[in-house]
Amino acid sequence: MSENVGSDGFLEEALKRIGEAISNSLKREAEKPTFGVYRPSLISACILRQWFIYKKGLAISEEKAGIFKIGELFHNFLENALKTSQIEVLAVEVPIQILLPLQPAPLWINGKADALIRVKGEGEKYVAEFKSIRRLPEQPLRHHVEQLHFYLAALNCQAGFIIYLEKSALRHSVFPVKFEQAVFNALIDRAQRLHKALIDNEKPEPDAQSWECRFCEFKNECKKEAGQAHDRKPCRHCFAKVVAD
Ligand code: SF4
Could you tell me if the CB of 208 is within 6 A of ligand 1? Predict the structure, then answer.
């Protein structure tokens, strides 16, 4: 064994290289949002947050890239689990596009469904959406159900499944979701409101669910906006933050 192995210099170099390797594997091409092209996974989010995302372009930090990477690892695990069962995986990462030919600019909803599946020997196809999560929910989360609706509509499926996998113990829950026209119509309406607000360059009123603000990249900008807007129509989440600070 070389006398240098295990010396502080070698250890430091190895430590640096390991850190670089992990950081590099987490680097993602930041997907710059384009006006007129919206994402099924975002449309349920606070409409003001989405407006900021499109106006400013969202850079994905390494911490967030890590969250995406964990999601990818779980997806691979679930895909392989289904492939070795009585479930036939017809396609994975299935691209979808929905076009609304609006004036003055068309609106596209582009995304990828995790998997298209069917029980072996049966004809009915389903969309499967995989979600890694800290704690298994008792009901499917609303924004996940809504995201799934875009895939169901685009892939002409009457129903799908949201499959949750708990990060710490790999416990799972599977929820069937039936397509509901009213849910889909409300989502399309929401996408159109966002589209119009971006075209007109007018900030929409925030409509976050109670947990969203904690994870929002635009807390500071929004806090200022909310502070200015209190007399008009306060956003209860941002308002709470303003008074708390
Ligand atoms: S801080 Fe909350 S209300 Fe404000 S933009 Fe973000 S999610 Fe929306």
Answer: yes
Name residue, tokens 């008009």.
Answer: 232
Tens digit of each residue's pLDDT (9 = 90 or more) over 84-96: 888 898 998 899 9
Residue extents of the structural domains in the chain: 37-204, 206-245
**Distance spanning both ends of the chain, measured CA to CA:** 59
CA distance 227 to 28: 35
- For 123, 151, 171, 196, the CA distances from 98, given in Å and listed in that order, are 24, 9, 34, 17
Q: Which protein residue's CA is at the shortest distance from atom 2 of ligand 1?
A: 213
What is the position in ligand 1's atom list of the atom closest to the CA of 213?
2
Closest ligand 1 atom number to CA of residue 212? 7
Q: Which CATH architecture has domain 37-204?
A: Alpha-Beta Complex (3.90)
- Does the Cβ of 51 fall within 6 Å of ligand 1? no
Our separate counts of H helices and E strands in the chain read: 7, 6
Chain segment 159-201, per-residue pLDDT in tens:
999 999 898 888 999 999 999 999 999 999 999 999 999 999 9
